[in-house]
Structure prediction request, 287 residues.
Amino acid sequence: MPDIRPTGAALGAEIRGIDLSQPLDDATFRTIEDALHEHEVIFFRGQKLTPEQHIAFSRRFGELELHLRKDCCKPGYPEIFVVSNVIENGKPIGTQDAGLFWHSDLAYMAVPSRGSLFYAHEVPHDDSGKPLGDTLFASMTAAWTALPEEIKRKVADRRAVTSYAKGYYRDRKSGPRPPLTEAQKARTPDVEHPVMRTHPYTKKPCLFVNEGYTSHIPGLPRDESDRILETLFEHASRPEFVYRHQWQAGDFLIWDNASTQHRAVFDYALPQRRRMERTTLTGTAPF
Ligand code: OGA
Ligand code: MN
Prediction:
């Protein structure tokens, strides 16, 4: 049986004793899936996976998304989205600076992602050997629970609009991105999601607005909407809800996009290389 060790933070657990390159029996898979729902972020260290094995394990959870930024997907593997600062033949091999702002993946789609499976191939280090490029994760079940009742009452039945363009064009550390194509724009109209969503598996309430993509709460005057969202964004990333993952090459980490948000700590630059690969689970419409 796998050995599950919670991080001690509001979320996150390491699972030991599993080789993800091997087929897993149903009972073991169910233990992993239950651990993901309970701990919201789970990780396995020291994994050695081919892209086929990364995809095969991901598919145990269900259908996978093909990212709309096709130029950032691994050649020959449309299911694998590359997050990397590496340039080959003068071209970035993936998206260079994903997730500089708190967000959950595909929160800007009518059907956001259920979860993401992130595999660390190369991790940058400083001169003393300390890993750089950590990722922060925040528990949106903990954040919702800790909200003052008065704010909960105000927003519990509201919806909020997300905008892909808001996140796409924000300040970027690696310079401006190419303008969105008409096809990308057509796939990402603004959509509305409940401010508080019910987790599809655990049924726990989760705060579901994020600073990366949420733009406003319809039905409120704009300044009030701005003020409430600012309060919610600030609340969502409070240190007591956060687990900071320090990467090692070979880490395979899964986050739940309904119950968590994440943000990249972009504190490295070439020649320090960072190369991560992500598969993205198709989710269900928030309610
Ligand atoms: C992502 C993402 C953060 C990171 O791939 O979805 O937000 O630390 N990545 O690379
Ligand atoms: Mn992300």
Remarks:
- The chain is about 20% helix and 30% strand.
